[in-house]
Amino acid sequence: MTRIRSLHPNSKNPEERFLEAFDEYGDALFRHAFLRLSDRERAIELVHDTFTKVWMYVKGGQEVKSFRPFLYKVLNNLIIDEYRRKKSTSLDALFEKEGIDEAMFDDLKDDSVQSLLAEMDGALAFSLVDKIPDMYREVLILRFVDQLGPKEISQLIEISENIVSVRLHRGLRILKELIENSTPKQKQKKKPAQ
Amino acid sequence: MKKFSAQFKKQSDTVRLRASERAELKKDLRTFIAYHPLPNGTAQKKHTIYDIFHIRTPLSVRYLVPGCALLLLTIIPVVAERSDPGDRLYAVKVSVNEELRGTFSRSHFQALEWETERISRRVAEIQKLDREGRLTSERESIAAEALRQHSVTAKDAIERIRQEDEEEAMMAEIALDALFDVYAALLHTDTVSLASAERQQESDSEEESTSTDAAGKRQQIIEALQSGRTSTENQITNQPSYNRLILRIEQEITSSYEILDSVSEVANSEELQSVTRRLEDTTRRVERAIALKSEGNEQEARTLLTETLTSVRKAKAFLTNIEIRNSLDLDTLLPIEYTAEELRLQLEERLAILLARASEIEENAEAITIPADVLEKINESLANSEERWGEISDLITNEEYAEAGELLSTQDILLFDIEKIIEKYRAVDVGRNETASSTANENDRRDSEVATSSTNNTTNQEESATSTNENETDTDRSNQSAEELVNEDDAQE
Fold first, then answer.
1. What pTM was computed for the model?
2. I want to staple A144 with a disulfide (CB 3.0 to 4.6 A). Which of B8, B201, B317, B380 is the partner?
3. How high is the ipTM of this complex?
4. Which of A44, A123, A161 lies nearest to residue B7, judging by beta carbons?
5. In a 3-state reduction of DSSP, which class is residue B211?
6. 3-state DSSP call for residue B136?
7. Coil, strand or helix at A77
8. Whole-number Å distance between alpha carbons of A157 and A181
9. What's the CA dihedral at A87, A91, A92, A98 to 10 degrees?
10. Segment A99-141, tens digit of pLDDT
11. Do the Cβ atoms of A114 and B254 come closer than 8 Å?
């Protein structure tokens, strides 16, 4: 499939290229939105909004050099807006509610990401990912579903790489606890409800 | 990590748009695009400069001139990329191509990354020139100057990073210094310079060579690298915080193992084992730092972690750069850090070897003729050593490995000296025996002549008496020469 390099208004057949982008990235974006929101219909709507926003951006005369990160950026912002609409508390309050102080890195000394991952079943972890707070779910999905590196994630959601690592680590720890506390019946379920 | 990641990804791939949803979404987007067309949707004739100024030019010129310009603008930079310091297009490579690429850096981190890449390029150019025997002092100066400029630019990028994040800037300095150390070590190796020296000798006979001496080669580059460091070697001025260091080291170790997996097919098993061992050493250092921190020695822990981060960066440079892997011994770059158990085993092995040597010395001393005073001294030394063996053994048991190692080295030197003396006396013994043996053969021959000849008894007896005297004189002479040997040895010692 031809990759879109530019959507500059002077490019040849920009409309077709834009639709090719949808063919290429539509599923990945939907997957990301659905795993974040656990709402299929709303995820489809956000994907639609993402592409229309990008189209309007290009129509305004702007050039998109790298399409994939730009799409993710727009989608991520829409998801954040969605959360702000849904929840009465802010994300910072969510921090306080969960007693999280991201300056405390002491827990990293006890176990490493590697040792956590070695002990966990990926399929089972996936089935429980919708149960962890979105702050951690976000980085886990970006890392293991969208296959972005810590640097790309930090640029996308505008936090430092260190905090990305901490959230990854904590998210995995919470998943591990959920796995350990899950019943055998739950362990048999490998797919989230769609 | 791969297994978890693969399983997680595989499950997530089952989440996708249904065909109907996809078709519906695409249809909506088409409708949206149709209602919001791009401005100037149809292709329009662009007015060129020729139309604006009503310049009548042949069609071929209209296309030829821009075409040639385009060709030059694309070909020259491409050709310049292959140039080396001192070549005509080298300035285009460094000042145009690379500067242009640098402008695409979106952040200070990317700018620093690019400058680091440029430093690597300069080192690679030097190595290439050296291999081909084209490294003149002029070329080296050009490359060294470029290196200095890159170092300055890299430091500027770090200063800009410092304004946003002080600790990140410290990490960047550590990484940059580690890189400089690696390249300085690489250029110090003799392999390439020796090969160049050989070529220099060959070319000298044909024409006047303008190459620099082998000894002074790359010295300018090495000095440029050393001056590029942000801090002097072994001096740690600013250190990031403990938490930050732990986090960064963890990230670096993780990525190092990932790189190790990816190069496992091209690197040989010995290299992979070496790097794995260094990474394990690093993990142990981190554990020591954590222990220090829990005891309240945070500053010491930070110092240890800073050194550890430098080691990890060096190991990564070794892993990711095939030129470094081929030219540099990892032991030179990063010596192995032996565990307490390994040290103990090494010391015990050394002790066993030295004890065996001491025992052999005692046996040899008994088997050969040694002057009494010398033998007394040897026995005295061996008797003193008996105490030392016990002392060394206690030190090993008490895990005082450094001191045990020093004592073992001392004992090694002592035994070596004794072995030298014994060897010399053995040589004296052998010489004496050979002389005595040849003299005895001569006596036998003459005795037989005496026995068979009755008319020459008197003469033969006189002759045998003379020969006996001669034998005694010979023996005295050989003994004297042995003593002289020993006296000479004593005087030398």
1. 0.47
2. B8
3. 0.76
4. A123
5. strand
6. strand
7. helix
8. 31
9. 80
10. 444 444 444 444 566 777 777 888 888 888 988 988 899 999 9
11. yes
